[in-house]
Amino acid sequence: MLKYQNIYVTDQDKLASAEKRLSGSENLTISDILGYYGEITLGSQEFKMVFDLGSSDLWVPSQNCIQDSCRIHKRFNESLSKTFNPIGIPFSIMYGAGTVDGITGKDNVLAGGLESVGQEFGLVQEELGSLFREAEYDGIFGMGFDNLSKINASAPFSNMVEQKAVKNPYFGIYLQRSNDTGLTGTLTLGDIDTTKFTGNLNYNNVSTLNDKYLYWILDVDDISINGNKLNFKNKQAIFDTGANIILMPDEDAATYHKFINGSSFDGRLYTVPCNTMDQVAYIIGGVSYNIDQSDLVTDQPDLVTGSDCLSSVQIGNDYNWLIGDVFLRNVYSVYNIKDFTIGFAPVLNKILVS
């Protein structure tokens, strides 16, 4: 037992303190544009970052970026960091609503009180797309697998695991809605926040693409609407906090909306009544997860009728589904980068139907 300034510290206290340091959490704020963001420290400079399941790279605007989209955000100043090391390899990353280009560097990153030492990241010198001009956040913090990296670097959380900065190789995500008063989203690194969900976590194996772990992909059994199963077969979905809706191939989106009362299609977008009361559940790993009615629509009204809202399910590519925040807000989710699994449990105000 140690004594310091009349404070006794037991071995048990030291162990508890060490364990506490091996996990951490970050508050998440819902973005008006896309995704959820929180604060990190990169080379002693603070940035607001979207924590994105659909990518694996960390990037921030460089001081050398003089575009308006960069200048209205926090930019990384290399001269202010004693731990920064330049790499200088060019990169380009394309997102659904924009592209960023720049060069790479290396510095220490602090997220949720946990550090990734010598993290390779992108110094963006050019941003293309309205997404970045209008965003409240400065950059993106990728939470996907290393193989997805466009700068050929380890993802930040992967680095934390390898450096033993976290006690467990998984992170948990809880997302709030814009109308959830007094609530804050949470990213828990290296641990699980058991106060955010009810029942047990049900784990599902992540699928590969071309024999590589890239995205957080799961098999989806089916969808039920008002008690009717839609009989989807052999469907896979990418789960992505960087998407605020659900995207399906044309035929699947049409099947889904046949069961949604009052839905319509203008040849490009689906609309549904803003006050829809349909009961929708996604069935994954044999477990049904109910979707709150508020998540069946977006906040955007239909510009033609003015009375309906855009559906939260729209047409995407011809292959996989993309499942975003409208599903993930209804569950607490856990992502394990070593076991290659995702665990779901309904959040406390939701009901799970087995």
Compose a concise summary of this entry.
The protein has helices spanning 11-21, 68-71, 130-134, 156-162, 250-258, 325-328; strands spanning 2-4, 7-9, 24-30, 36-42, 45-52, 58-61, 85-95, 98-111, 114-128, 139-142, 170-174, 185-189, 202-205, 217-220, 222-225, 228-229, 235-239, 246-248, 264-265, 270-273, 280-284, 287-291, 297-301, 308-311, 313-315, 321-323, 331-336, 341-346, 352-353. It is mainly β. It comes from Gigaspora rosea.
CATH architecture of the largest domain: Beta Barrel
Q: What's the count of strands?
A: 29
Approximately how much beta-strand content do the residues carry?
35-45%
Unreliable parts: 1-19
- Across the major sheet, the strand order is 4-5-10-6-9-8
- What value does the Rg take, in angstroms? 21 Å
